[in-house]
Amino acid sequence: MADILPESEALSRAVELLREGAAIAIPTETVYGLAADATNGEAVARIYETKGRPQFNPLIAHVADIAMAERIADFNPLARRLADAFWPGPLTLVLPHRAGSGIHPLVTAGLDTIALRCPRGFGARVIAALDRPVAAPSANSSGRISGTTAQAVAADLGARIPLIVDGGPTPVGLESTIVKVSDDGIALLRPGGIAAEEIERVAGLPLARGAKGVQAPGMLASHYAPSAHMRLNVTQVEPGEALLAFGPRRVAGAEKAVALRNLSESGDLREAATNLFSHLLALDSSGAATIAVEPVPLEGLGEAINDRLARAAAPRDS
Question: Which domains does the chain have, with CATH numbers?
Fold first, then answer.
């Protein structure tokens, strides 16, 4: 089983393992990440192996600062403005990949672009100490619920990795927003921890939507899935179902749910985002065959929450 160390004691051990080519779990402000040296092909392959992740699904390369990012990708003025406004933080920029950056091709999955993010806290410290970018998708088995605590990561991946750095519950609780920046404008590839409206305000441009194909992490149709089936936007709870609620009022039959978790009693979307994955995991552990989900508004962070719920509910092979 993985060692679990508090982040205050883990930096030197984490750097040592990353230099050796290991994949380890680290806290970020979004969710826990499964981190490996992005310049080391064997280390990146270990991420795919650990997660059981399809190799056509690219990874985000995490950087310590904009200077590191600019050695990896081409920043036009708009991309630089977004980075200045939102980094460090939960925004991933998909940009043209610079030749000779040292990033292993497995990270980009054959694309001529690269997804970059500058995290806060321990993630930034470990990357700076390593002095190399780190590939770090969410620390969970591919397609399953993302871990927002060290304990959730341990339950899923603890037997497959040597170290989990415990930074407590992640404050955002939802993966980063992914935006592709080109000379033609900006496109929202995945809603996430920063609302689209905030990005549009800084950019001075509308975000295009409806991207086709896998252009960035988290774009597979079925993703973030619990073992239980899911019903979205329900108006009543059927016998034997668990209920993922939102807000102060319940749908019909809520009192008969075999288990209930409320994303936010007050209807606060930021609180709901923080609680999403931990509540899904709790309901999935209840033994219910189906999780019924009350409607969540689409505005602000509700767009990202509904995106994750739709992917969790999508048909899947297993």
Answer: 3-203 (3.90.870.10), 229-313 (no CATH)
